[in-house]
Every structure is written in C-alpha cells, then in structure tokens.
Amino acid sequence: MRMDNHQLKYYYPPRIDPMPSLFAGFEQQICRDSTKNEHIDGLLNALAYMRTKNEAAEPNDTRADFVMYRGMLTRIFVTPFSLRDAWSMNIARVGATIYVEDNVTDEMIADRSGSSEQHRRLMYSGYKFETLCMIDEPPETLSREQLDEQLAKQAREVVNTHSEYCTVFRTQLGPHSIISGAEVDCIDRAKPREFPNRSYRELKTSRCLDSEKARNSFERFKLLKFWAQSFIAGIPAVTVGFRDDEGRLKEVQDIRTQDMPRMVRGKPRMWEANVCMNFANQVLQFIKDNVADEGPDTQYRIEYSPEEAQVQVYSLGKRPSFLTAEYIKSLSK
Q: Percentage of residues in the chain with pLDDT exceeding 90?
C-alpha cells in the first residue's frame, strides 16, 4: 500500500471499431485473492498515515461520526429498492466515531472461490473494459505519437486486479459526518489539488439493452447502484460499456450522475433518490441510537433480512477488534 498517485489512471475513450472482446485475455489475468478478509485496514491505514505524517492536516479531517467504505453505504442506500438483497455489517464505537465493516462470512468466501466460469468471465469483462479505457498519463499532455504508444501499451495490458487506486473522502448525510474510502477507476485530466473527485470517472459494463425488458432491468437495478456509488463519492460521470453475449464491446455511453434520477422519474417500479437518502439517514441515526457501548473490542452487528423486511442492530459483546493496532495508536495523535 502506497500513499501516492502512482496507480491513478487517466480516461481515454476506448476504440470500438473494430469491436474489442471483453473476454480476451481471461486466462492470463492476475487475480487478487478474493478469499482474504481485509476488513477496513486500508482505510484505517490511510487515516493513521494522515495523522502521523501529514502535519498540514487539520484534526477534524480524520474524525467523523462514521468511518466505512463506500460499499457499505451503497448497500444501505439501495435497500428500499433492493428488498431481496440481505446484508450484514460489524460495528464498533470508539469515542465519538462509529466504525462499520462488511461481515464477511465463510459462506461468502466459499461463494467467491466457487463461482462458475461464466460468472468469472462476466466479472473479468468489467476489469477488461477498465483496462481499455485507461492510460498512464493525462491525455492532454501527450503528443499524437506518445498517445499512440500509450494505446499500444494498453492493448497489450494484462488485467491485474491486484492494482487499484483508492480515495479517502469526507461527506455529509443529514446530521451525520462520514469518512469513507472508495476505489477510483480513473480521472479525466491531471489531478487538481482541490476537489479531485469532480474529475474522477466511474467505469461500468452491462449487457446490451436489446429489449424493453433489458432496458427496464438496467434502469431499475444497475442504474440505481451506479447512481448511489457515484453520488456518495461525488463523482460526476459514469461511462458504461455495453457488450453482447460473446463479450464484444458494442457501445460506450457517458451518463452524468445527476441525470440518473431523472432518467427513471415517473416510470413504474423505479427508484427514487430522495427515498434512498432518507432511508440511509434513518439507518445511520438508528445505529447511533443503538450502539451505546464503546471500545475497539466491543462489537455490534447490523443486518437487513429480506425475510423479516427490517433492519436490526444487536450486541456481539467482546470480540477481537477489526481496527488495526496502528490505527488505534494513532487516535492519540
């Protein structure tokens, strides 16, 4: 883990003539170990680094009501319109801050390692699309010859899911301050010193929308998650690559995050952004109200059960802390 920008990639629209295959190179990919539970170590390490190394950081920059990865907040956001999707998270309160992590079970790890080849190919196609959209230098700084060299390198690139660039950011939902971390796919230009998230871009894939049923499903489910992920992190745009069943990239579409709620407004059985935000606000308040005991080794669990159609918080008592020792030490800084 490095605290710099060396993994930050730059967006350049992919070539779709001829249509590239998003399944190409599947056998050569370098895969991250999906069976390892990394907790929220990366996010905590970044906050500890800011406290111990960055003398310019204000104390409040690394303190908030909640600390969690964006993925956890996204699950909460989409729950009102994803009622069949169960989730479970672990919670610890230390001082005034509540830490939230995914409750990774043995069953979840087994599912990751035992997924079908077709499922792994579909997962791979998303990473391959990202590779086809990213270069190593800001495109505006490159000559035509240099750009061609970057694109030639890009075409030879082996997909490596070990490598990623993550950002740590503060956000606010109602009265709740949140520090979160999220993987960033790429940036549109040289990274600005202030508000870099306004130049970040999400990269997503989907099957071609070749029927009204397919379009409705895309807008009802995928677009909801695209919006929640991007809205939470303040990322203004998502680029979607549409592939056919053979993995060929047929179309690329840019969608502004702020336009997504309008795309589904008034349509039957669709989602509403305000409902998502209000629900998440209520869940965070519910956590605050029910997580009273504090200490890194005092844990709670919050769960949403589709069978019971409700969110519950309950105490787990004393357990080994999911906060790193380095981070706990940094709290005194």
A: 78
